[in-house]
Specification:
homodimer, alpha/beta, seven-stranded mixed beta sheet, 8 helices, 9 strands, DNA-binding
Amino acid sequence: MSKGLRSDIPKPTVARLPHYRRALEYLLSMGATVISSHDLAREAEVTPSQLRKDLAYFGQFGTAGIGYDVRELISRLDDILGMSLKRPVLLVGMGNLGRAVLNHLPSYRSGFEIVAAADVSESKTGRVISGVRCHHIAEIANLVETLNIEIAVLTVPVESAQQAATALVSAGIRAIVNFTPARLRVPESVVVEQVDLSLTLQKVSFYLEPTEEEK
Amino acid sequence: MSKGLRSDIPKPTVARLPHYRRALEYLLSMGATVISSHDLAREAEVTPSQLRKDLAYFGQFGTAGIGYDVRELISRLDDILGMSLKRPVLLVGMGNLGRAVLNHLPSYRSGFEIVAAADVSESKTGRVISGVRCHHIAEIANLVETLNIEIAVLTVPVESAQQAATALVSAGIRAIVNFTPARLRVPESVVVEQVDLSLTLQKVSFYLEPTEEEK
DNA sequence: TCATGTGAAGCACTTCACAGCA
DNA sequence: TGCTGTGAAGTGCTTCACATGA
């Protein structure tokens, strides 16, 4: 398998890796030290073959006849996901939603930390909110460079989303998690991940539609 | 094509329908009245064939040689997605995140409306927050029945997520949009859609990893 | 002529099934 | 023996290419 281009990994595989990591954390908290692909797969709600195939893209992690060392595998997944070091994150937009993200992220026990925030409002600029200093949005280029930030979480009002995204891109941000319903126009090299409540509700709604045939 | 079982529709197709709807709304706001699969596909960031194939699962909506009527297609998508009537939604958990969802949902111009909220806190019970009355969590069975609610948005702390979900299920809720990192155990018949910031961050992080080979 | 709707072909992901190792 | 890692087979989604209709 050599190393393989990162872009050669199937997208569904990448999307499942965080789930494996979470399942492993859970199993670890339940006292497991070694786990078979069968048991881990059940916890992550995939098939054992799929789990083994997914891991195989990145090397060999298990012991035949035994299974996987839980701590070891978490650590390897952290390497693969780029979480070995806590990644600094910039929060843009300190409204209701921004503050909610700020308060909730630590409880996720993730490898990410919001190290700075930005907002247009003069009333928030300079204040420290939930332990994070809020800067004026004009300073983001500075923040990104001095704090070595690659990821931004965008929680501004939808009207200013594109403007903020453009500023983030020229500041050198490489990925944006976009909580606004705006579809951002950014260079292809910038990773955008959409988190959209209304699209999610619409999808859910589809599966609720009545059908005579369905059980 | 007759009618087709709802579960026969490919999941990727279902996931794209809300994007088509959004693209159409945008095009409508730009003054478009008729649109070709080519132009709509560009706006929705899919291929024209994919768009046409997706729509073909549900019938014939276009005019050969012309394209699709924008308003007409939005309306058909609303039918398909079960959004023709505004669906009532129950918000469970009135913390930071719950209030953020409450404030932001209207700006999404979605076919959904939060008609009631629930929380454990006595201090919130009975109050009206952002135009929505907050009830005690013990009342959800009542709320669900009297207001005819099928969808719940779960924004409680992770520790009480499973308990709340169980209560929602026995109250007769059919779908849960889960903003907590908890993996909910519910009957198969209940639709659960996970919205998880830390899993999203991990996925994004993967694509940022340095690779010598990549441009 | 131009764009839809759709079988057929192609591709990508998943599952199977077993060789090989502890 | 038990379970991983992996080619091979199978499945399902996407893209192609064109017949059909306006």
